Sequence to fold (400 residues):
Amino acid sequence: MNKTQYDVAIIGGGIVGLATAMALSKRAKVVVLEAEDRLAAHQTGNNSGVIHSGLYYKPGSLKAKNCTTGRETLYAFCQEHDIAHDNCGKVAVATDESQLPSLEELLRRGTANGLEGLKKISAEEIKEYEPHVSGIAALYVPQTGIVDFVEVCEKFAHVVKENGGHIQLKTRFLALKNESQGLVLETSQGELRAKALINCGGLYSDRIARTCGVDPKLTIIPFRGEYYELVSKSHGLVNNLVYPVPDPRFPFLGVHFTRMIHGGVEAGPNAVLAFKREGYNKTSFSLRDTLGFLSFPGFWIMGLKHWRMSVGEYYRSFSKKAFVAALQKLIPEITEDDLVPGGAGVRAQALDQNGNLADDFRIVEADKMIHVLNAPSPAATASIAIGETISGMAEKQFGL
Fold:
């Protein structure tokens, strides 16, 4: 292990950790500790690659502020560094009358969040953007795009190294000693000293906080999102991105269609409880992870409130027919033959003690530490802005 004294040790080599390192490396000696043998191994590397517009988020929230700012910064970064991306736009579609009030709320939020060119379109106008999509009304959102976030992370890491920062793979954080002169981090590769620590541990952010002596007042609940992909002959069913109007009770956007930057079209995801924090398969199971959320009082409160939704999501997980039925609400002509199994990702969703799914980013400061405790979508889109925000917090607290 490198014996260098660092200004800041950042736990987590996903997109938020790397963006934070990139921002801080301009003026501080930083090290990024990643437990896996590669960067972006979990949430960042298993998402659908959508650059979100900021349409969905409550005006004034951290999600809204960082997404709208971070989106444009990300587009500029991709342009500057020749990263393949496409500002292709999307349609968010209402398929029945009951969704029209929610569509109007999305229009209000998007307008409040500064989305220029956002417009409501009719059933006939939907066909101009997506000829195979059926709906009674929709929003056209020009700011939405697609990118490969793993490539973005690789470029973030390159910039960090150019600025003199270090990235250490296969280095798992184990324990922390808070001494008067700084912090001593025990890792799987030995001890490391730093003046300050930033926790961007994603799926393990709550555990890392507790290991550091900080009560996060929440627990991470892993939700697996499962995808199908359209077979090549069916790619023409989707031009760009097609989303439903989301259920406002949940922080999930519902099954949708996403054209991918390197070709192909994804359909999904659903959102099922995973019984392992890295539970990418239906059979994945960890006794520790499962007991962890079963013993958290908020989990049972959430379960009682939303059990019907959970049953429906699990049914779709095991029934391709049910999954296709959900997709047919948007594209009626799609069939089971148009789809083949795709990948899966796990969302680190924070749940509080009252059974509420956190609907905004949550960043907590402690002595010599900053903990990012909830940063699901649109964190990838907002990553550069989040990194600058955390960098500013670090400058103020740590005197960097």
